[in-house]
Design goal:
Two copies of one chain form a homodimer.
Chain A (H helix, E strand, L loop, with lengths): L1 H5 L2 E3 L9 E2 H5 L3 H11 L5 E5 L12 E2 L9 E2 L3 E4 L7 E9 L13 E5 L11 E4 L3 E3 L3 E4 L10 E2 L10 E3 L7 H9 L4 E5 L3 E7 L3 E2 L10 E2 L2 H11 L3 E8 L3 H11 L4 E5 L10 H7 L3 E5 L3 E2 L5 E5 L6 E6 L3 H19 L9 E6 L3 E5 L2 E11 L2 E6 L8 H4 L4 E5 L2 E5 L4 E6 L1
Parallel strand pairs in A: 7-8, 15-18, 15-19, 16-17, 19-23, 21-26, 24-27
Antiparallel strand pairs in A: 1-2, 3-14, 4-13, 5-12, 6-8, 6-9, 7-11, 10-11, 20-22, 22-23, 24-30, 25-29, 26-27, 26-28, 28-30
């Protein structure tokens, strides 16, 4: 039980300001190291084919190629008249036919004639420009053209301008958004190769927990982590299974963990700090989950546990998050979300660090990388982050007013208004 | 048919550079006016009660109040020893009991004693501070306390610090994210009053269209708008019904529109510009849909149509988007998305304008508010927007590389690198 041994005090230093040094801070790894471990452990999910209608939000696993030119023919971009491009005074042309979208032109246009044409319709032979309806005067059999300069190619989208048959229209690794759905439809890719969605089980541990719809008796607390993590997992594009509350006994934990290990990921909350009933690392070890790290130098979120079960073909990522809801949330945002993103095939799976200017001072005292709740706002001058008042890592209520976390490396400093800081958007 | 009348040329000005003036540009309204119309027409959806597990992403429709204090008792924030706060040299205390989370303390602590306590457990009578386990040395029956200053309240979260019974924990109008799910669970709000999700029907019109899984014959195009808009509607938190492709005949259109009017919103693509087969406004009028606007001074997206059907109790918003996929997408992002957000109860339902510095020059020539595809990047100095090369409003392929639109008011100007511009994030 390496994780337990690490927690034994190493140096006992007494005095007015010196605190005990424990193995904790010495053994803990940095956030960057933790993310490196996650990147090495978690492999992108198997590739599945999904109908185009369900592909949005997933990551394309192979380059998507078009089976046709787009557009498949020279096409009018406007409603108007297909003509031969030429300069000169306004003039009247004979109208040959009307080409609506979906119909093929029948006759060729020459310098004395024009064909009425609709947006999306095919350009007739002879014509090399389209004059917008708004620049013409319709006289039935003839049309008066109001513009004097008509350039070749004007208002025409030539065949294969967007892409040609055989060309990659969306590259592997790209996240499929509505725009990508549109272009995949255009290219005829209706069975889309994507990385499968992760299947994630969530367990909240603790003798003190009762379900959210129950009134907590003396010494009891409601389970907020279970519902919160379940929602967070779904919002990350995975399939969540909330396995509910499990008591702090070896047998109950063993049964629940064994069930959770049928998923791609298992997330436990509670039971990973150093208390006598923190049985989670012990049960995980018994069931063959190998510890990769226990403890990350972040505040809040320090006692987070990460391990893996099984080998390369069926490898399950296991996270033990602190029972404290704020620590649990931060651990999820910084580490679990990254693991899910890596599994889902995102190339940029690590937490995205952005930057903003402080709107208000920030007092910072931490021996670890600290994350402070903040309200991000967009102004005409750029982005500002207002540090929110909060009473530390048990204050979930304050965190609900935040839409970002300000990240500050270890140190003691008061940052003033306007100082540029790193942020993680939540 | 007001919409048709408006399109009749008003002034016919010939010459080298002067184009016909049509009713179009004169009658078209601005984006701000269009959004005002949408705000007046669309009312927030009826309030429904949803299970907490399904509430994420919805907007809370009534203040959510807690039925308990949180925490419900004075609670330890760490694993350690509950003691009486005092200053002085390091000392050894008798250990009275072990209080695990979920168990109630049995005996009171005095200045000569301490109780071993776990994170989340209730503070015993007499004690007013907790010393972290890492600052102590455990000798079984006794404990040596290593810190000399123990402040009252240290490592204790007092009852009702987060919120008190009867207090609002999440205010009406807030979007429910995983954090809000957590705090609603803590407060016992497991049936959540939210605005219902919109039910949206999508119809792609056009004789030239074939389904995405079909090879388009001569003069035919694949329907990319249907799948794209369906995905966009789902991504906006609504329920989408893709009604497929409808031919440009009054009877087919009439039947499909009548079916679509059973939803809260109907979105049509194609058939709203000024061509001879643009039957959509005519059919909508026949079926009792009142036109509110037709044409907005935006580029791309100009011919967008908006109307409403029915009265206040059952009011249906109807959008006609241009057939061109890029225009259709921009019309959705700027107008339909806003209408859905308003229906879903979001207070900030209008498109969020942010700002960024240009990374590369931008040539701007437009008589309307123009939106250019751009790649937004976060750097240490703030946010930059790189204008992407594109071939105008038929170039959906280029738009798929964008994650933002740069918004520039009407004018002719070349903006250089570093210039601050407004952006809409897509």
């Amino acid at each position: 039980m390496a994780a337990w041994k690490r927690c034994v005090p190493r140096a006992l230093l007494f005095g007015n300001t010196v605190r005990f040094h424990t193995g904790w801070l010495l053994d803990m790894i940095s956030l960057a190291e933790a993310l490196r471990c996650i990147g090495e452990t978690i492999r992108p999910a198997p590739i599945i084919e999904t109908p185009l209608a369900d592909a949005c939000g997933r990551v394309l696993a192979r380059d998507a190629l078009s089976d046709i030119d787009s557009p498949p023919y020279d096409k009018s971009l406007v409603d108007g008249y297909a003509v031969v491009a030429q300069s000169g005074a306004a003039r009247t042309l004979r109208v040959l036919e009307e080409i609506t979208a979906g119909r093929l032109p029948r006759v060729a246009v020459d310098t004395g004639s024009a064909s009425r044409i609709m947006t999306g319709a095919a350009i007739p032979r002879g014509a090399d420009a389209v004059v917008m309806k708004e620049d013409t005067e319709d006289h039935g059999q003839t049309v008066r053209i109001g513009t004097s300069h008509i350039l070749p190619g004007q208002n025409i989208l030539c065949r294969a301008t967007s892409f040609a048959a055989g060309q990659t229209v969306v590259a592997a690794g790209r996240t499929i958004r509505p725009l990508e759905v549109g272009i995949l439809a255009e290219a005829g890719v209706t069975r889309v190769p994507v990385h499968a969605a992760a299947d994630v089980s969530i367990i909240a541990t603790g003798n003190e927990l009762v379900a959210a719809d129950t009134a907590p008796g003396p010494g009891r607390l409601r389970n907020s982590n279970g519902p919160m993590l379940t929602s967070a997992v779904r919002a990350a594009g995975a399939v969540a299974h909330d396995l509910g509350i499990v008591r702090d006994t070896m047998s109950e934990l063993r049964e629940a963990v064994a069930r959770g290990l049928r998923s791609d990921f298992l997330i436990l909350s509670g039971g990973v700090s150093v208390g006598v009933l923190d049985l989670v690392p012990r049960v995980l070890s018994e069931l063959g989950v190998r510890e990769i790290f226990h403890g990350v130098r972040i505040k809040p979120g320090k006692p987070v546990w990460f391990g893996r079960h099984g080998e390369s073909d069926r490898r399950i990522g296991v996270f033990g998050l602190p029972g404290n809801p704020v620590s649990s949330f931060v651990g999820f945002e910084l580490l679990v979300r990254a693991a899910l993103a890596r599994f889902h095939g995102h190339h940029d799976w690590q937490p995205t660090m952005a930057s903003a200017c402080l709107a208000g001072p920030l007092d910072h005292h931490a021996r670890r990388d600290a994350f402070y709740p903040a309200r991000l706002r967009d102004s005409a001058d750029g982005r500002t982050a207002e540090p929110l008042p909060w009473r530390g890592s048990a204050d979930l209520a304050a965190l609900t007013h935040a839409n970002a976390l300000i990240h500050v490396p270890p140190g003691n400093e008061t940052f003033s208004d306007g100082h540029r800081v790193d942020i993680v958007i939540i």
